[in-house]
Design a protein that fits this description.
- With 339 residues, the protein is of the alpha/beta class.
- It contains nine helices and 16 strands.
- Helices cover 28% and strands 19% of the residues.
- The termini are far apart.
- Bound molecules: adenosine monophosphate and magnesium ion.
- The site of adenosine monophosphate has 18 residues, from strand 6.
């Protein structure tokens, strides 16, 4: 398939991409979290094509993106009070909420679940495309299943050229990790995936919020899970990654003791010059927002470097750092050393 490339800064490009989507096509579009692979959320065939283009397992549901609160009534069967409170505070923004689904949403979009995931993105290009298309867009991350989520146009071109109708460049994603996901469909309100909107912020607004055990732990074989995406290793780089939980000093000592060819350090900016192996940095030790912004790009750089083994320095698992930690334990296949 021919993939048309667009630049969001050029006149007419948003409208052209919106037209492709209206006509049942697939387009990779920028959002503030990561790039999304979008299709008309009401179009069964188009949503099926998302799964095909990504090589995504059919039981991993898609997030539906809106550009106006009035779109919600055709997507969700109800709008719980807690969701209303969070929407007032954090929408538009990097927060996805799970609600009971409306009959208008095809089963393929929600992977046969009775619920649907909804997000109102803040990115001006994403919003303009949804608005011009006039339909909500189902959009998982625009990577091939199993590779790191794309945070730039170049990442999407690398993964999806020839597999989608269009890719539009809207610059690098500023958040860098996928949206926070919170569920309102069970008895309790549960954080299913940590992101830029933190657990601490959610609790400030709602009081009690549980954290799904899949956020921090490996699932048992065949275990049922609220967020199917958590089942998959995902974000898996080619090299074998070990996550090191340690102070900077101990991490540097450990890596230098194990230095040999093919070994890489995925470390903080401040550590690189003290390490005697090849390094890829993912932001300052002191900024969880920077770490989130750079982590997926860093994992892609490592993939291209030919690294065989990677010692990744663990971020602090609080604030936005919880999101970075959650992605890294998966990239490491839960291989963790605590010093
Ligand atoms: P991605 O857009 O690639 O980040 O993937 C979407 C994520 O949203 C996956 O991890 C799904 O498991 C999660 N998700 C989407 N819809 C639902 C739903 N109805 N219930 C629970 N999780 C969902
Ligand atoms: Mg994804």
């Amino acid at each position: 398939m021919e993939t048309l490339l667009f630049d969001a800064k050029k006149e007419g490009s948003v409208e052209a991409v919106a037209n492709i989507l209206k006509n049942g096509g697939l387009a990779a579009i920028p959002t503030e979290t990561v790039y999304g692979l979008a299709a008309n959320a009401f179009d069964e065939k188009a949503c099926e094509n998302i799964f095909k283009a990504k090589g995504r397992p059919g039981d991993n549901p898609l997030i539906v993106h809106i550009s106006d609160m009035s779109m919600l009534k055709d997507i969700a069967a109800e709008f719980p009070e807690g969701a209303r409170l969070l929407a007032e505070k954090f929408w538009p923004g990097p927060l996805t909420m799970i609600m009971k689904k409306s009959e208008k949403i095809p089963d393929v979009t929600s992977a046969n679940l009775p619920s649907v995931a909804v997000r109102f993105p803040a990115h001006p290009v994403a919003r303009a495309i949804i608005e011009a298309a006039g339909i909500p867009l189902a959009a998982p991350s625009a990577n091939l299943s199993g590779s790191p989520s794309p945070t730039s146009f170049e990442h999407c071109v690398h993964d999806l050229m020839g597999r989608v109708d269009a890719i539009i460049d809207g610059g690098a994603s500023s958040v860098g990790v996928e949206s926070t996901i919170i569920s309102f469909v069970g008895e309790k309100t549960v954080l299913l995936r940590p992101g830029y909107i933190t657990l601490e912020q959610l609790r400030e607004t709602l009081g009690e919020v549980e954290i799904s055990h899949a956020v921090l732990e490996k699932l048992e074989e065949g275990e049922k899970v609220l967020s199917p995406g958590m089942k998959y290793k995902h974000y898996a780089p080619k090299a074998q990654v070990t996550l090191i939980k340690a102070s900077s000093e101990d991490y540097i000592k450990f890596v230098n003791e194990h230095a040999k060819e093919g070994i890489f350090a995925l470390c903080f900016d401040e550590e690189a010059e003290k390490l005697s192996v090849s390094t890829v940095t993912y932001g300052s030790e002191f900024s969880d927002a920077e770490q989130a912004e750079h982590i997926f790009d860093a994992l892609r750089i490592i993939d291209e470097s030919g690294a065989e083994k990677v010692f990744a320095h663990s971020p602090k698992a609080s604030g936005i750092g919880l999101a970075v930690y959650n992605r890294l334990i998966r990239a490491a296949g839960f291989d963790i050393i605590e010093l």
